[in-house]
Amino acid sequence: MQCYRPVDHAIVPRATRVAAEHMRYQVRAGLRLAKLKIAWFAASEGALFEEEWADPIICLLNTHRGSAGDLCGLASPEASVVWCRSDLTPQMVAETVAYEARHLWQFTQKVWAPPVAGDDPVAFCSAWDEWYRRREIDAEAYRQRLAPVAQKIAQGWSPSPLARTPVLREVSPLGSRRRLLLS
Q1: Tally of domains in the chain
Q2: Mean pLDDT over each residue of the chain, to the nearest integer
Q3: Closest among 33, 32, 38, 45 to 18, alpha carbons compared
Q4: Over the Cα atoms of the chain, what is R_g?
Q5: Tell me, what's the pLDDT at 148?
Q6: Enclosing H/E stretch for 128
Q7: Single pTM value for the model
Q8: List of residues 6+ apart from 15 with CB closer than 8 A
């Protein structure tokens, strides 16, 4: 099983770092987040040492897994940090930043506050599961809404112009009609 450890941003490919920063700028403004930082982690085959488990970040990274058993990103609301896996493609990292930033935004909204435990543990667990499910659906919808932006960001960092696929871009409207052109 892979373990995750924080890494210095210098080992992350430049295109991935730049894509993350472009999306960070986009979602920070769009979600009106006061702060939003990007940090990086990588998978390693070596087991974690006992003292590593005492580190709150390493513990956080290694106790959350994606649906496929791996982790692409994680939101750390206490520090307003989106953690991104260092080996993601520019498009994947841009989408991950959008998804995790939405989770950070949810933590700032009263309507997204987690349920509070009461006298009935079964009701609390049910409410928690529903809250978690709604959070994930909302974050995924936000990621999908920004997927075209992520694609555009990633295409700016494609390794060669031949690898780029045509993008639809909007031309200034003439009257009330808009035209889309391939560029």
Answers
A1: 1
A2: 83
A3: 38
A4: 19
A5: 94
A6: helix 121-145
A7: 0.80
A8: 90, 157
